[in-house]
Design goal:
Helices cover 46% and strands 12% of the residues. It is an alpha/beta fold.
């Protein structure tokens, strides 16, 4: 089965497409939502279209057009783009790329936070406490985030690293020297972010990201967001008031030192960043509400046939 999925060929592929059609016959859905449909070839999508009348919608949080994704599954998924009715793009650059690959409709669906999970967890729900540590709680990539962490450690700043693939990327010895701990999830993640002096955030270079869910999760939890500076993040948060942004290792070290030396500044940025996220429409509820309104318009025929960037 793994081999068939790897090469997008074999009877298991037809069985999967048939299961989708059987479910459509039972439920008579208005739409079928495919999340990162690497298992579905153009032939399978055409088969589904012939056997049901639902709108076919696709969402992919990875970048379908990144040079990093070149195996057969990704090539098949790109060829299937014209067969879907709507694509939800996770980043602005993908909107144009979907059009260039023959998409019928494209809408932007950026990262988000989940309000029932990402919220302050102190006994009184307050924001602003700090244990003086810098936290890295992300996956590892070879894009500069390791060097940023090492720069902070070399400067004598306390950094606690939680990552599920650091050793895989940089080796067991490197993970031990940095003191990498097991990843934190759920309320443990929320508490870790809220209590830290600051939490680091990096956008994936492999995917060409402008945003990541951490951008919204960290301040929503009551944490202080320290992120790589780019145009999109700079437009969302006031640097030095609602978040701290940096463009180099040297600037990162300097700004974290400023936070260490000014607990009141840490408290203010946490409070203002939290307020900023709560007053904006970046929760998963907001994203789904926007998507449902768009889909309802398409289903009812009141939406334009072409959704621009």
């Amino acid at each position: 089965m793994r081999i068939q999925f790897r090469f997008s060929a074999g009877p298991v592929c037809f069985a999967l497409a048939r299961r989708v059609c059987d479910a459509a016959e039972r439920f008579q859905p208005d739409l079928i939502f495919f999340r990162r449909p690497l298992e579905f070839t153009p032939r399978m999508i055409r088969y589904i279209r012939r056997h049901c009348h639902a709108l076919l919608t696709s969402f992919n949080n990875d970048n379908p057009f990144s040079p990093a994704y070149r195996d057969r599954r990704w090539r098949m998924m790109r060829r299937a783009i014209p067969l879907f009715d709507i694509h939800f793009a996770f980043r602005r650059c993908n909107v144009v790329q979907y059009w260039e690959h023959g998409a019928r409709r494209v809408a932007l669906w950026e990262p988000f936070y989940s309000p029932w999970l990402h919220r302050p967890l102190s006994s009184n729900g307050s924001v602003g406490q700090s244990n003086g540590e810098v936290v890295f709680a992300m996956h590892s990539e070879r894009d500069g985030r390791r060097e940023a962490v090492l720069s902070l450690l070399a400067a004598g700043l306390p950094v606690r690293v939680y990552s599920w693939n650091w050793a895989q990327e940089f080796g067991e010895r490197d993970a031990r020297s940095v003191g990498v701990a097991q990843p934190v999830w759920g309320d443990e993640y929320v508490t870790t972010v809220q209590n830290a002096m600051a939490t680091l955030c990096f956008c994936s270079k492999q995917n060409g990201d402008e945003l990541t869910s951490r951008v919204f999760e960290i301040p929503a939890c009551g944490g202080l967001l320290v992120a790589e500076r780019n145009e999109r993040i700079s437009g969302l948060f006031r640097d030095g008031e609602e978040a701290v942004l940096f463009s180099s290792k040297e600037e990162l070290v300097r700004r974290v030192r400023e936070l260490r030396d000014s607990p009141d500044l840490v408290r203010r940025i946490k409070v203002q960043g939290h307020k900023r996220v709560l007053s904006s429409r970046h929760s998963v509820v907001d994203r789904c509400q926007d998507a449902m309104e768009l889909l309802q318009g398409v289903i009812c025929g009141t939406s334009p046939k072409t959704l621009g960037p």
